[in-house]
Amino acid sequence: MVARCDVVVLISGSGSNLQALIDSITGDDHPARIRAVVSNRADAFGLERARKAGIDTRVLDHKAYADREAFDAALIEVIDAYKPQLVVLAGFMRILTPGFVRHYQGRLLNIHPSLLPKYKGLHTHQRALEAGDSEHGCSVHFVTEELDGGPLVVQALIPVESDDTPESLAQRVHVQEHRIYPLAMRWFAEGRLRLGQYGAELDGQALPPSGQQLRN
Predict the structure, then answer these.
(1) Rounded CA separation 154/152 (Å)
(2) Domain 5-215 has CATH 3.40.50.170
């Protein structure tokens, strides 16, 4: 039996990316196994998705802690109890402390709804439309101490249509998120993806600054 890559997923909301990850690992031959889903909100629907899939769930209310450092220290304790090789942020709406990020360096992935380095932060679809961009998309990246700034792993690109609204664009980008996040998790679980000295590497080769790009 080949050892599987244990994964912990952090969420704050509905967990649609979590669902895509869960759906991608059906069958015994997948190299990843989601050991637990942790949320900072007890009402996050993603917890229900995890329970339905038979995955452990934990809730850690950030409001119960004096500051970010105290919350992140407690979060590390909860995560490390599962001994994961990979921690995946799937709509976890917390800015993480440098200490947390350093603790999981090289094994912490995030997905962001823009073609990074464009549009870090919020309202990415609105900003892409206001800028008149012809292409938009989403990015999976390793997390570093710079917000939405770690080395890119993979991006999905979609054309911006003339009649797009922030809502229609968000919907189409979501579809691509559900495509590339399971892909990145699989690469990592197979030992193909790693964070090297100079950035993300796939199959021992340095990825370009934009990561692997997939056009729809």
Answers:
(1) 6
(2) yes
